[in-house]
Write a structure and sequence with these properties.
Elements: H1 3-6, E1 8-19, E2 22-33, E3 36-41, H2 48-54, E4 65-73, E5 76-77, H3 85-91, E6 92-95, H4 106-110, H5 112-116, H6 122-135, H7 139-142, H8 155-167, E7 173-177, H9 185-198, E8 203-207, H10 211-217, E9 220-225, E10 228-234, H11 235-240, H12 245-251
Parallel strand pairs: 3-8, 3-9, 6-7, 7-8
Antiparallel strand pairs: 1-2, 1-4, 4-5, 9-10
Helix pairs in contact: 6-8, 8-9
The protein binds adenosine-5'-triphosphate (ATP).
Adenosine-5'-triphosphate binds at residues 19, 24, 42, 44-50, 209.
Length: 256
């Protein structure tokens, strides 16, 4: 890895999160480099999605959720009262489990955020559409249908258009919450290949239930269990030579 790749984009310390009275995260310390993919793995209910959603303040939209701890993103505090969550979510974009195209054309889907920002220059919008769809590896499939509804695309194409919509905002960090779990195996592989290309230029954090997916695409893996971070390391170490017994049990399929 080069020096550039070793810079930290996000650091969290002692992250705790309560749903009402119930503490779901028990003090998570994690650092993320500014390039490459970190996979969050662990059994159902271990807190992976809860942690991921805390990173761009998605829990602000839910009642009764309390978040504490420090979240340093490129030198700024994610939870500072002055942080604008709309701006934050442009810098830390999110891709969900279900592809979520809006009922508009492919073109309008990709530039949705730019339009909200008031961008009107057609050349800028055209460039953003082409660049983002190319980055999301779906340009060749949709370039002749940009003004047709995104709802007419396959699930896998919709998911890549959803990724393009996030990329159009030029984010620094992408959060992906089980982005292939609703897709067939071929579409899943296409998304994985897209993410492998993007990892050269972006920091990404992916929640996945698939250990084979984590081992195929991630540089680092963090293992969660019952709201605790058990171990984080280079992916090959987590799968081949984990330091903790719980990690060993999980990756060898003994539970979860
Ligand atoms: N909105 C909510 N209200 C109350 N409890 C919740 C809520 N969302 C999650 N939880 C609880 O928080 C804990 C962590 O859940 P979370 O969904 O983060 O786990 P996960 O590891 O992502 O699981 P999965 O792999 O099944 O998605 C679980 O005990 C879950 O029941």
């Amino acid at each position: 890895m080069t020096d550039k790749q070793e810079k930290t984009i996000l650091s969290t310390r002692d992250v705790r999160l309560w749903y009402g009275q119930k503490e779901a995260l028990h003090g998570i310390d994690l650092d993320f480099p500014n390039k490459g993919i970190t996979a969050l793995i662990g059994p159902s209910g271990s807190g992976k999605t809860t942690y991921l959603r805390a990173l761009n303040r998605m829990h602000d939209l839910e009642d009764g959720v309390t978040v504490t701890g420090s979240f340093n993103f490129n030198g700024t505090d994610i939870y500072a009262p002055t942080t604008d969550t709309v701006d934050l979510r442009k810098q830390i974009g999110m891709v969900f489990q279900q592809p979520n195209p809006f009922p508009f054309s492919i073109y309008e889907n990709v530039i949705f955020g730019l339009r909200l920002d008031g961008v009107k220059d057609k050349a800028i919008l055209d460039e953003a559409v082409e660049r983002s769809l190319k980055q999301a590896s779906v340009w060749d499939e949709v370039k002749d249908d940009l003004h047709k509804s995104a709802l007419g695309l396959s699930g896998g194409q919709q998911q890549r258009v959803s990724i393009a919509r996030v990329l159009a905002m030029s984010p620094d960090l992408l959060l992906l919450d089980e982005p292939t779990s609703a897709l067939d195996p071929i579409s899943s592989r296409n998304i994985e290949e897209t993410l492998l290309k993007l990892r050269e230029d972006y920091a990404m954090i992916i929640v996945t239930h698939s250990m084979s997916q984590a081992s195929r695409i991630s540089d680092r893996t963090a293992f969660f269990l019952s709201g605790d971070l058990i171990e984080v390391d280079q992916t090959k170490h987590i799968f081949l030579n984990p330091q903790k017994q719980e990690t060993q049990d999980y990756v060898s399929g003994r539970f979860g």
